[in-house]
Amino acid sequence: MTRKAIWPVLASATWLLASGMAQADNTANVKHPLWFKEPSAYLQEKANLDDLSDIVVGEGPFGEEGVLYSDITVSDEQLEKIRAGNFTVAIALGWLGDDWAQQQLAGMREEFERLGIKIIAETNANWRDAQQISDLATVSVLQPDLVVSFPLNAQTTASAYKELADAGTKIVFMDQVAEGLEPGKGYVSMVSSDNHALGMNIADMLSDAIGGSGKVAAMYYAPDFYVTNVRYEGFIARMRAKHPEVELVASIGHNGPDRGQEVAQGLFARYPDLDGLYGSWSIPAMGAVTAASVAGIAPTDLRIVNENFDHIVAANMAQNGYIAGISAQNPYLNGITEARLGALALIGEEVPPFVVIPPIKVTRDNLTESYKRIYRQDAPAEITNALSN
Question: Is residue 30 part of a domain?
Answer without folding.
Answer: no
